[in-house]
Write a structure and sequence with these properties.
This protein is an alpha+beta fold and 210 residues long. It contains four helices and nine strands, in the order αββαββαββαβββ.
Length: 210
Amino acid sequence: MALDPKKTLDAYQAKHGEFRILDVPSMQYLMVDGAGDPNTAQAYQDAVSALFPIAYALKFASREQLGIDTVVMPLEGQWHAPDMESFTSRRDKSAWRWTLLIMVPDHVTPEMFDHAVDAVEAKLAKKKQPAPALRSVRLETLDEGLSVQTLHVGSYDDEAPVLDELHHRFIPENGLSMTGLHHEIYLSDVRRVEPAKLRTILRQPVGRAT
């Protein structure tokens, strides 16, 4: 069976209704940047369409070349905006800036990544399928460190009260301050799961307030 880091890494564990402080280790990701409402922006769809084929190409290359088989990890996103209240009280999605991510194992090398991108590009070209974001994907390490996270169950649009409590109650009450970007891990497949049952890890990197 393919290894599943979601089941073994503490950074992918969270409980509904509970904020937990943890130390997130440095991990390697496929990343692509963009902006705009994820429900309507073509750039968002292009980014998703680029990330997953590369992730699968790396999975197969890893299995064939190294004998290591791992599941393709879920889509993740880092989110920010000039005014962070656009995530909570106003939910102005048009102002959102994002980096979409898929975690890949440490044994994936830059050379493997380059070959995977080339292979996906060639495959799509044969099918005459456009891939506008493919060459915008990069392989990069993210080190978030000290963080707070929880599991949200429900529609993405219902996250605002949870984030408001996290930002304005839990973090300051625990002597913390927000440092890195708001991070979401999409454990559910939005194409197959009804909005009320979507499971999303919400993470906020923090530092000790001085």
